[in-house]
Write a structure and sequence with these properties.
Layout lengths: L1 E9 L2 E7 L3 E6 L5 H14 L4 H7 L3 H4 L12 E7 L2 E8 L13 E9 L8 E6 L2 E6 L2 E4 L10 H4 L7 H11 L2 E3 L14 E2 L13 H11 L2 H11 L4 E7 L2 E7 L7 E2 L5 H13 L7 E5 L10 H11 L4 E5 L3 H10 L4 E8 L2 E4 L16
Parallel strand pairs: 3-16, 3-17, 10-15, 15-16
Antiparallel strand pairs: 1-2, 1-4, 4-5, 5-6, 6-7, 7-8, 8-9, 11-13, 12-13, 13-14, 17-18
Protein name: AAA family ATPase
Keywords: DNA damage, SOS response
Pfam family, one: AAA_21
């Protein structure tokens, strides 16, 4: 489980060090930095797939994503990291060296580090890279890894020796299991509203298009009782069925007072969105981390309490971070989760800060040196 998340010089997150819990809810006014925090987590996930440089390019390049305020000391640097009780990881992006390459605007990975425990210190360091050279710890000595890492390659994606520093592979696999949901489509042209070819689907897709197959998978190999309880708590007296004809799957919902069940094309945006959250949170294959961005969007207020119950139940099997504007959802989560970790962001002089957290209240954190 991640216990500390750290971001430096990413958009309004000049320096943000957060403590995370099993279930963490991030709130704050519009423009406080919630979306930046969500994107920073996605960048961390991209680093394990060697996609962080491309992700930064899609955001306009490193220069467009850096903290734009004053007091930026030292070299240009965008840093991301996390730590748990077992391992920690950090990555540092900087400006490229001058070259004639057509890709001369791509940011470079200046340093990376993996360490044991929650705090980085020389004795806990297990592997690091700098200037393209990777080394791993072997007892009391360091072993250089043959070859040179390209400036755009993360050691998480390129290192593959399970005998030396297996922690690198473990962290890579853990990060690659992270799941993010923020673009679940329910518009009139959304694929989910049409019958889709279905196969066993233990993980709902990012846009929710395979909802019917994902719900049927939960019914067959997951927690079918929890599935139907989630439907009943949100829509009393209703019954969910999945039609599967010639390999094409579609969602149908029977509701009291109606003479026939309604298909996905007829369901409201809120009803369809809630069914997607059911599929995401009751997944038979829980990730190490599940991040939900504004799950309350499109939902009727009456659905927020059942959603809170789903999120709380999901946090039993996976660490969950919820980024939300909804006071009602946050209150419902607090009632169900007494040890809820609540983080409220606000902005001061363009910088995102944590309400009630001074410098002495931050979790201890040290960045690896370049």
């Amino acid at each position: 489980m991640i216990t500390i998340l750290a971001v430096q010089n990413y958009r309004s997150l000049r320096r943000l060090v957060l403590g995370l819990g099993r279930l963490t809810v991030v709130t704050g006014a519009n423009g406080a930095g919630k979306s930046s925090l969500y994107r920073a987590l996605r960048l961390l996930a991209d680093s394990a797939r060697n996609g962080a440089v491309a992700a930064l390019a899609r955001e306009g390049g490193l220069a467009s994503t850096l903290w734009a305020g004053p007091e930026r000391d030292g070299p240009v640097s965008l840093r991301l990291g996390f730590a748990g009780d077992d391992f920690g990881y950090a990555i540092d992006f900087g400006l490229p060296r001058p070259s004639n390459s057509a890709f001369g605007l791509d940011p470079e990975i200046k340093s990376e580090a993996v360490w044991a425990g929650a705090f980085l210190r020389p004795a806990s360091l297990l592997a690091d890279r700098g200037n393209g050279a990777l080394r791993v710890r072997d007892g009391r000595k360091w072993l250089p890894v043959p070859g040179v890492l390209a400036s755009y390659d993360s050691m998480l994606s390129e290192y593959s020796d399970p005998q030396r520093a297996p922690e690198i592979l473990e962290i890579r696999d853990r990060i690659r299991s992270w799941r993010f949901y923020d673009h679940l489509r329910t518009d009139a042209q959304a694929p989910v509203r049409q019958a889709q070819i279905g196969t066993r689907t233990p993980v709902l897709s990012g846009d929710g298009s395979d909802l019917a197959a994902a719900l049927k998978t939960i019914e067959e190999i997951g927690d079918a009782e929890a599935l139907h309880t989630a439907i009943g708590s949100a829509f009393p007296g209703s019954e969910l069925t999945i039609d599967a004809e010639a390999g094409r799957f579609t969602v149908r919902l029977s509701q009291p007072g109606l003479l026939r069940s309604l298909g996905a094309a007829e369901l409201s945006d809120g009803t369809l969105k809630y069914l997607m959250w059911v599929a995401a949170l009751l997944t038979p294959r829980p990730p190490a981390l599940l991040v939900l961005n504004e799950p309350e969007a499109s939902l009727h207020p009456d659905l927020l309490r059942p959603l809170a119950g789903l999120i709380t139940a999901g946090s039993i099997h996976t660490q969950v971070v919820v980024i939300s504007h909804s006071r009602a959802l946050v209150d419902a989560l607090e009632v169900r989760t007494p040890d809820l970790c609540r983080v409220e962001l606000f902005k001061e002089h363009g910088q995102t800060l944590v309400e009630g957290q001074g410098k002495l209240d931050e979790p201890p954190w040290h960045w690896p040196e370049r």
